[in-house]
Each structure stands twice: as structure tokens, then as C-alpha cells.
Fold these 2 entries.
Entry 1:
Amino acid sequence: MELFNVYPLYDVTPVSANGSTIIDENGKKYLDLYGGHAVISIGHGHPHYVHRLKSQVDKIGFYSNAVKNPLQNELAQKLGKLSGCENYKLFLCNSGAEANENALKLASFHTGKSKVVAFKNGFHGRTSAAVASTDNEKINAPLNKQQKVTILPLNDLAAFKAAIIKEDVCAVIIEAIQGVGGLDEPTSAFFQQIAALCKLYNVVLIADEVQCGFGRSGKFFGFQHHDVIPDIISIAKGMGNGFPVGGILIHDKIKASFGLLGTTFGGNHLACAASLAVLEVLERENLIENAIETGVYFQQRASEIPQIKSTKGKGLMLGLVFDFDVAPLRKRLIYNQNIFTGSAKDKNVLRILPALSITKTAIDNFFNALKTELL
Ligand SMILES: Cc1ncc(COP(=O)(O)O)c(C=O)c1O
């Protein structure tokens, strides 16, 4: 059998990795400034992470959600404490799309309504309501297009008000920093005003923190830059440092009942161990502080390069804006300089999403390589 051919592949075969270094089958080393779509948060192969996963699988790797799993409670406690979101409850699942799917479904259950408001260039996953809320016609099948979703320009309060006063909206879903879309952000005023309107019209505000959460923006959650309180927060990517795990944090005002949500694999022992290891390393090694410091350093270095027209984003969720399509540059960075970077919907944006443990030396190496490729 062959693979269903949906991914255009770079000709690189990683076989091992540590920290921000990936090693291919020929022993060639690459600098990873992309973390496999913003997933690697504490660095590849972190010893504490490896130890926690290995020792967990030696004991028990999985059992269903029909029995007690104290690791889930431990994860909820630790996540609440580190994120400052202690008045939320945690529901665990397996991916970002699944997190948003559960968030949207819960919003619909909670309000009894069915329309979703999402934003231009937003990305929320590839399943059912999550993909319908994603601003990309090409990945929405006729089945998905049956969902009732209005996609509005970001930061357009008048358009938002006009959509929400119809009183048929169950949820608004928003990224504090857009990932796939190209690093645009809501203003604090816009975020705060939509939060207030959501309250007024009984609409659930969903912060999609799948990419910008878990410290990447320099705060635990991206929305925390804006002084707002979402009703549901969706998480995945950096949460497991490569182990597939996702979840939603649900504000105390939304009540649980048996059977409301459910999953076979979500919150299994290995997933909890992976996510606990991530939180422990984030805390012990002050990685959020490192994300702030190295993020500022990155932006400073970027400002020295005349071909970079501007930088977007916060912490270590950054976009370098050029005035040309960066696809050939990305290719040269991989094949000539052995550096992984990312693309965005905006073709002129080079996305930078390193592990939160990245060093200034690695950043210097990147800029030396970039200068060579821009000559
Ligand atoms: C903001 C955001 N939400 C949701 C998703 C979907 O996550 P997953 O690919 O784990 O389903 C992504 C993936 O890129 C994302 O960036």
C-alpha cells in the first residue's frame, strides 16, 4: 500500500533530534526554527520529558475514561496554577481541531444557538465546525460548508456588532495571534469590546490558543496580553511537545453533565505524562521568560536586515515580512543552510516558531545564514 499523497515533502528524513537540532539519516544537522508547526515547546528529546514518558509507559500507557486517572487531575491542577486560569475546568482530547470542535459544540449546547463568528485569515483545524470556522475555501468540503459560520474582518467592531445583534450566534472563535494566517493580531480594544458584547448577547468567547498558547507568546496564553476573560480556551500543539494531546479549559459558569463531551483516547496516561513534563520544564527552566528575552533579541536582529520590511507577532511566535514570496528562500534555508522555518497564508511572511529554549547563539547563526541567502 502507498500513502495517500496529500503532503508536498521536503527531501529531508529526520532520524533523531535534541534541543533545537534535528539530525537526518545522513548525520546532517539542522537548526529547527519551526518546531514541526509550532509543536516543539521545550525542545526535542528533553531528558525530563523522555524520562517521564518512558517511566509512564513502563507502568501503564492507556486506559479509557471509564476509570479514574489521577494524572488528569494532576495535569488540571498544574495547568491551572501555571496559566493563572484556576477557575476553569479541563476537558482533554487529542489535537487542536478536536479541541476547537469540542469548544464550538459546547458553546452550542450551552447557548442553544448554532451560528459561529470567526475571523478573516483565522485557522482552527480541518474537521467539521473547526474547518468551517477556518478562512480557507479550499479545505472546506461541501459537507463542511453546511455549517452556519460568518467570517468577519479582524478589528472591525461595526461588522462584529452587526453580526452579533441578530442573537443567533453561539460562539466567537479568535486567535490572539494568528498562526497559519500570518501573525495578525486583534487590538486589545477590539478583543475587550467583543468580550463585552459576547457577555451581553449570551455568546461563548473561544480563545483558540492551540498555537499561541503554552508560553509561546511570552505569556502563558496569548489572550493574556489583552486583559480579557474567554469562556473557553482551546489548547494543543506545545502542550505535548510532540505527543498528540489537546484540550479545552472551560470557565466555571459552563456546567458539565455526564456524556456532554467524550473521547476514547483523550487524557490517556501517556498524554498526561507528556503534558505534565512540558509544564514542569516550562516552570523549572523559566522558558516563558526565555521566550520573551530571545523573542526581543530576534526582533532586534531582524531590524538590522534591510530586506525584512517588518516583524509581526510576540515572544517566539514571529513572522518576518519581506516584499517577495518567501517560498524559494525557505527552500534555500533548508537545503543550503540546514535551517527549518515556516510559511504562512501570506506568502511574503517567513514564520519563526522555535522551541522556547532557543539560545541567542542559535538566533545569531540563523541571521548569519539568512544574510548569506539574501545576498
Ligand atoms: C490556531 C490553530 N488552531 C487549530 C489548529 C488545528 O490543530 P491540529 O492540526 O492539531 O488539529 C491549528 C493548527 O495549525 C492552529 O494553528
Note: The pocket of pyridoxal-5'-phosphate is lined by residues 37, 95-97, 100, 123-125, 175, 179-180, 208, 210-211, 236 (CB under 6 Å).
Entry 2:
Amino acid sequence: MSLAANTWLGWLLAWVLSGALVGAAIGFRHDRLLFGIGLGALLGPIGWFLVARSRAAQVECPGCSRHISRTALVCPRCGTNVRQAQARNPRSALRQADRGKPW
Ligand SMILES: [Zn+2]
């Protein structure tokens, strides 16, 4: 392999590695580490932008309003049962209060 090809491969490797590293940092903040690494390595700055713009895989806890994982069943910070709290919206609470009452 010629020296020029080696140099190009080196630059390519450095580009992919630095892209993956920055993508990982951005993806980590958005709770999408692997997505960030993949897009960062493939697309570089464009991938970073896409990861930064992507919707975080997090939801707001109904108990303490902090961001928790979308897949969490119980909030790790305040212990609220997320599924139950989502089912207990204001409308269902009103219906519960009206149940059994005459008009
Ligand atoms: Zn919470």
C-alpha cells in the first residue's frame, strides 16, 4: 500500500472516530448513545446535527416533572408509578368523582 493511501486511511479513521466520539457525547445527552455514535461516525457534523435535533427518548415525570426514560415504569427520582399516573388524568378523575351520583 502506498504512503498516500495510508495517509488517506489515517485521516478517514480519524474523521470517523472523532465523529463517533462527538456523536456519542450528543447522543448521551439525548439518551440515544448508539444512535449518536452511528450517525456521528457516518455523517460527521450532519449526524451531530440530526442527533441534536432528534426527539429525546425521555418523558416528563407526572410526579416531579423531571425527565426520565420513556421506558421507565417507575420514576427513579420520586418513585411515582408513571403508567398509573398517566392513566389518572384529570378527565378520568372527574368521571370517577361523578360515578354513582344522581343527576
Ligand atoms: Zn418523578
Note: The chain is about 60% helix and 5% strand.
